[in-house]
Amino acid sequence: MSIRYLSARLAQQIDDELMNAAGAFSLDQLMELAGLACAQALAKVYGTEKYSRVLVACGPGNQGGDGLVAARHLSMFGYKPTIYMPKPGSKDIYQRLHTQCKNLNITTVTEGEEALRSALKSSDVILDAIFGFSFKGPIRSPFDSALPLLSASGLPIVSVDIPSGWDVEAGNEAGVGLNPDVLISLTAPKEGVRMFTGRHFLGGRFVPRAMEEKFNLNLPAYPTYEQIVDITEATQKL
């Protein structure tokens, strides 16, 4: 039986259940596990020898929080991350995650297009954590200028959960989203990434078995202690 793809509504329902009294996870825990999985996926494909300089593009919401966690772990893994925030998040959890990165002397870029161009010139790979599965177009400022610059850089892109600019169900139908080389789906793949053809990982090793069975997710087994599992072959056969 093949892995289940999630609609926006189902993805939100699963998130809600993970954090209600039954699931008992906190948002901090889920971000930590998701961000660690994202860092592992990038490290699996892009080693420090050639891709040590990682530009971590973070949106202002929970997706950006995952990116901040990933930036911290990448620094611990021996990478040299730089955080790019087109629009910094205002929530307390976001601010705390950013402080943790600053405590590791991870540079943050927020100044606009020229600063982004400069950061891209001194980067080897991009981790895209701008928009999550709740994104609805059109893309507004300052993201409408940032995404084309990221695409035009020619750098490999690793996207978190769903490529920024893609609709969670319709995918890149509007043609304005990023086209990543690697995707790290969290919990389970979303409907909009069915046409994605790059390297595809599943991350977020936190879904209880009872919840997996309840929603018929058909998740693959994670190997040993890994936080990610490669689902490239399985998803491209569908």
Describe the model.
It is a single chain. The chain is α/β, with parallel strands linked by helices. The chain has one domain: Rossmann fold, CATH 3.40.50.10260. 38% of the residues lie in helices and 15% in strands. The chain is built from nine helices and eight strands. Strands 3-2-1-4-5-6-7-8 form an eight-stranded mixed sheet, with helices on both faces. Helix 7 links the parallel strand 4 and strand 5. The longest helix has 19 residues. The radius of gyration is 17 Å and the shape is globular. The model has no long low-confidence stretch (mean pLDDT 94). It is found in: Cytoplasm; Mitochondrion. It comes from Favolaschia claudopus.
Please render the helix and strand layout as text.
Elements: H1 8-18, H2 27-45, H3 48-51, E1 53-58, H4 62-76, E2 80-84, H5 92-102, E3 107-109, H6 113-121, E4 125-129, H7 143-152, E5 157-160, E6 182-186, E7 199-203, H8 209-214, E8 228-230, H9 232-236
Parallel strand pairs: 1-2, 1-4, 2-3, 4-5, 5-6, 6-7
Antiparallel strand pairs: 7-8
Helix pairs in contact: 2-4, 4-5, 6-7
Main attributes of the structure:
single chain; 238 residues; Rossmann fold; 15% strand; NADP
Strand order of the largest sheet: 3-2-1-4-5-6-7-8
Rg computed from alpha carbons, rounded to a whole number of angstroms: 17 Å
Helix content: 25-40%
The third-level CATH topology is: Rossmann fold
Domains (count): 1
Q: In the CATH hierarchy, what is the class?
A: Alpha Beta
Quickly give the structural class. alpha/beta
* Rounded average pLDDT: 94
Helix and strand pattern: HHHEHEHEHEHEEEHEH
Shape category: globular
Strand residue content: 15-25%
Number of helices: 9
Separation, N- and C-terminal Cα atoms: 11 Å
CATH architecture: 3-Layer(aba) Sandwich
Q: Main beta sheet, described? A: 8 strands, mixed
What is the tally of beta strands? 8
Question: CATH homologous superfamily - what is it?
Answer: YjeF N-terminal domain
Low-confidence stretches: none
